[in-house]
From TrEMBL:
GO terms for biological process: phosphate-containing compound metabolic process. It comes from Phlebotomus papatasi. Residues 8-149 form the Carbohydrate kinase PfkB domain. InterPro entries: Ketohexokinase-related (IPR052562), PfkB_dom (IPR011611), Ribokinase-like (IPR029056). It holds the Pfam family PfkB. This is Carbohydrate kinase PfkB domain-containing protein. Gene3D superfamilies: 3.40.1190.20.
Length: 221
């Protein structure tokens, strides 16, 4: 039996979040002052890594990054938190994705305006450079579903040829209706579903029905 140093790999997007906390959601063409504002590294897989690092777990983020000054700030934050980015792909002359987030204290809503003018999504060829022997868990955000499927299939093939204790747990998030296809979930061991995805894509009315409907969609007869 081999002993591995468990590492979780999160594959997807990293962006800069600019967050404004407001008493109420602003009216169009208005000028208001927020309660407070901040900027921080964002993107679901990137944020997952932050949580894992806070829990003392070894983790790595893999995604596309630009060579901009803003991306340098993101990389410095990863480094400060001991989150590896060794397999990230750096693209020249591209902009860093940016999310403007408005939080309403009155209604508890979160409104996000996201921009990504020209930064390519991660590809299977990029992912294929990873040494799968280093990971015990890989989490995917399916921003480019056909490429994500190929990545997940490659991990499943890896699991078929290694000993049970060396197999990798595969997880997937389904957040955006119409953009994250349900069928990719058949390749995952664990699937995380957002509320809006469950309501819109699965037509679920509660958590239990969401699980049941997901099983119906992905389980083979």
């Amino acid at each position: 039996m081999t002993t591995r140093n468990p590492c979780i790999l999160c594959v997807g997007i990293c962006c800069m979040d600019v967050i404004q906390v407001c008493d109420v959601y602003p009216e169009e063409d208005s000028d208001i002052r927020s309660k407070h504002g901040r900027w921080q590294r964002g993107g679901n897989p990137s944020n997952n890594c932050t949580i894992f690092a806070q829990m003392g777990m070894k983790c790595e983020f893999m995604g596309s990054l630009s060579d901009s000054a803003m991306s340098t700030v993101l990389l410095e934050d990863f480094k400060k938190r001991n989150i590896s980015t060794k397999n990230c792909v750096i693209h020249r002359d591209c902009e860093t994705p940016l999310s403007s987030v408005l939080l309403s204290l009155k209604n508890g809503t979160r409104t996000i305006v996201h921009s990504n003018p020209n930064l390519p999504e991660i590809t299977f060829s990029d992912f294929a450079r990873c040494n799968l022997a280093e990971y015990t868990w890989i989490h995917f955000e399916p921003r480019n579903p056909p490429e994500t499927r190929r990545m997940m299939e490659s991990v499943r093939k890896w699991n078929e040829k290694v000993a049970e204790e060396e197999r990798i747990t595969i997880s997937l998030e389904l957040e955006k209706p119409g953009k994250h296809p349900v069928d990719v979930a058949e390749l995952a061991d664990i699937v995380f579903i957002s509320r809006i995805y469950a309501e819109t894509e699965l037509r679920a009315t509660d958590k239990r029905s969401a699980v049941a409907l997901m099983r119906q969609r992905v389980e083979k007869p």
